[in-house]
């Protein structure tokens, strides 16, 4: 009678508690998983001094001498973009139509010296223009490949540690950073990062120098 | 003794069941909420005939005559981009450095005729070049505003019904669509859409003709 009923109720209560516990644990796990970075940067960026940022990224050995330049130190779109790039620990893929910003060039060279595997794909027509950073990057030992097509390699994206995509309208030029209306998205969702990684690898293989034709 | 224990167990079971039910309901609600669109399109797009797509979007009155052109009809990056644009029901904001693709121009005019509120912001330098669609859009009665700055209005984004962002490296030109390496992201996450909407409204106000200066 009562005892058996109580035993059944006990079992049901235990089951229900287990179900509630499981549901709660699943909800907590989803909640706790680090939120992916989602950021939008607009340009033009106001001018700012990035020396402290680069010195900090160069490591504890490179204590920053205070920079004597008169530019403000605060947060801006360029400093935010730099911070995202300088967070790279293992790899950096760059797929850039135009790359002539000395500030971004220094950041990429710094990452290369720090042991980050840097690979660059760029547009052949733009690469040779005065002020391009491509020659300096190659000189520093960074791998660069370029197209041999009539169309432009017009992408402007970077992938940090195979998990963070940085993409938008911004060419990596001082003109674009300081004067143009531009946007940059920072994205960690794999749904976006994966296709861009695949696109990079596809282009990287296609632009392999063994495929170059000399007319 | 037994009776009271059974009543306590019953209460505990009911509570646990209620908790489990609530947790389950919350999980289901989150699951059911329509997943936001997340799409990546790469270009160049292979050529394809878009007549059927435009006829379909023009409404049931406009039965499609089969197009006699020899282009394939299948799915491609351009047709996917067009489908997203043609899904607009209420509003379309365009913020485009260059707009000369006749196909995209026809799609925008179709939306305007369908009663969608279309607003265009573009770059003054590019606007006047031969082949630009801007004059045709204005002629059709679509509102267009442009910059008066030395820097470029270099954005290339569209916002559909204030909830879908379409952005990337792609200028809306036939050259870019057919020959360049380009990317376009389709995004429904409010975290990305909202800042772009704000940027559009900011630029729209700033480029108000009452602010134009004539030197």
Automatic annotation (TrEMBL), chains A, B:
UniProt keyword Aminoacyl-tRNA synthetase, yes or no: no
Single Gene Ontology BP annotation: meiotic cell cycle
Originating organism: Calonectris borealis (Cory's shearwater)
Gene this protein is translated from: Pld6
One Gene Ontology MF term: phosphoric diester hydrolase activity
Catalytic activity line of the entry: a cardiolipin + H2O = a 1,2-diacyl-sn-glycero-3-phospho-(1'-sn-glycerol) + a 1,2-diacyl-sn-glycero-3-phosphate + H(+)
Cellular compartments per GO CC: mitochondrial outer membrane
Cited CDD domains: PLDc_vPLD6_like
Coarse class of the protein's main subcellular location: mitochondrion
Pfam families named among the record's database cross-references: PLDc_2
Boundaries of every PLD phosphodiesterase domain copy: 149-176
Family the UniProt entry places it in: Belongs to the phospholipase D family. MitoPLD/Zucchini subfamily.
Cited InterPro entries: PLD-like_dom, PLD_domain, PLipase_D/transphosphatidylase
Matching PANTHER family: CARDIOLIPIN HYDROLASE, MITOCHONDRIAL CARDIOLIPIN HYDROLASE
Name of the molecule in the record: Mitochondrial cardiolipin hydrolase
Location within or outside the cell: Mitochondrion outer membrane
UniProtKB keywords: Differentiation, Endonuclease, Hydrolase, Lipid degradation, Lipid metabolism, Meiosis, Membrane, Metal-binding, Mitochondrion, Mitochondrion outer membrane, Nuclease, Spermatogenesis, Transmembrane, Transmembrane helix
Membrane topology: Single-pass membrane protein
């Amino acid at each position: 009678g009562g005892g058996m009923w109580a035993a059944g109720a006990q079992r049901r209560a235990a089951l229900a508690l287990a179900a509630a516990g499981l549901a709660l644990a699943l909800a907590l796990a989803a909640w706790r998983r680090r939120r992916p970075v989602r950021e939008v940067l607009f340009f033009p960026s106001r001018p700012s001094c990035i020396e402290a940022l680069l010195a900090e990224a160069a490591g504890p050995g490179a204590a920053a001498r205070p920079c004597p330049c008169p530019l403000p130190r605060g947060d801006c779109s360029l400093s935010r973009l730099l911070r995202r790039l300088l967070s790279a620990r293992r790899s950096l893929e760059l797929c850039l139509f135009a790359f002539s910003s000395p500030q971004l060039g220094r950041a990429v060279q710094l990452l290369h010296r720090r042991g980050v595997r840097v690979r660059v794909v760029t547009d052949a027509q733009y690469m040779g223009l005065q002020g391009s950073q491509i020659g300096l990057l190659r000189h520093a030992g960074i791998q660069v490949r370029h197209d041999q097509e009539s169309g432009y390699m017009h992408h402007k994206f970077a992938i940090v540690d195979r998990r963070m995509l940085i993409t938008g309208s911004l060419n990596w030029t001082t003109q674009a950073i300081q004067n143009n209306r531009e946007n940059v998205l920072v994205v960690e969702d794999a749904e976006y990062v994966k296709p861009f990684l695949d696109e990079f690898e596809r282009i990287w293989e296609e632009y392999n120098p063994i495929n170059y034709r000399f007319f």
